[in-house]
Amino acid sequence: MGVINTTPDSFSDGGLYLQPKEAVQRALDLITQGADIIDIGGESSRPGSEPITSNEEKQRVLPVIRGLRKETDILISIDTTKADVAHAALEEGADIINDISALRFDPQMTVLAARKNVPIILMHMKGTPKNMQFDPYYENVFTEIRDFFIERISMATAQGIKEQNIILDPGIGFGKRLNDNLALINNLGFLNELSRPVLIGVSRKSFIGAILDVPVEERLEGTIAASLLSMVNGANILRVHDVGAVKRALRVAQRILSEGPGELQAVN
Fold first, then answer.
1. Is the pTM of this model over 0.85?
2. Which domain covers residue 125, as residue numbers?
3. Which of 14, 15, 104, 161 can bridge 10 by disulfide, Cβ–Cβ 3.0-4.6 Å?
4. Could you give the CA distance from residue 116 to residue 222 in angstroms, rounded to a whole number?
5. Which member of 239, 247, 248, 255 is catalytic?
């Protein structure tokens, strides 16, 4: 999944794709690099960010979705917590709803996803983007996130969303400490019992910066490492900015893994 943020203030690429033509071209570049899904968002969810109005969000994302749909039939995901934005995006040709609130911020999002019968990504987040990194704490991060998803899946299916349409995102960097992020990546199998595809977004995030002590623009190697380990540990979808580099690394890793352990040959 390739990321397109049509925002002035996203933590990584804010301000780069404010013009629809530039955003569409960037999306086409990501497709050329190997993206299978393009995720388009118009509201920053970086720590401390302020919400924007639905009208402003639609003005940012709809021209991009409209322009991209004219160029390609690739799957398009709308990254929003607002049902009216999601509805407008679906009308313009989006295929997937990516809701970082897991249907908690706008009750109408559940109604929309059920009526439209589209895939929906439910993400775990402690708090809101504005306050999620104010001293987050977990007794047991695995139990709390698993129980959160059990409750969200139950709520969604009770209101008409088909379980096969649900994708889970543990929310790396969203109300998590450094050790929480690392533990989640290293133990993604804890979500296996829920039998739903897992999306993970590690791209350029602050936990990489904390480990390497580098700014956002120097986090490619960390993104690749975290993406590979996420894949090995069970992620089905990787949400990244640097599609080409991550895709090439995955090809090598998958080829190595496909060979299996083999037999140890004696060396004379």
1. yes
2. 2-256
3. 14
4. 37
5. 239
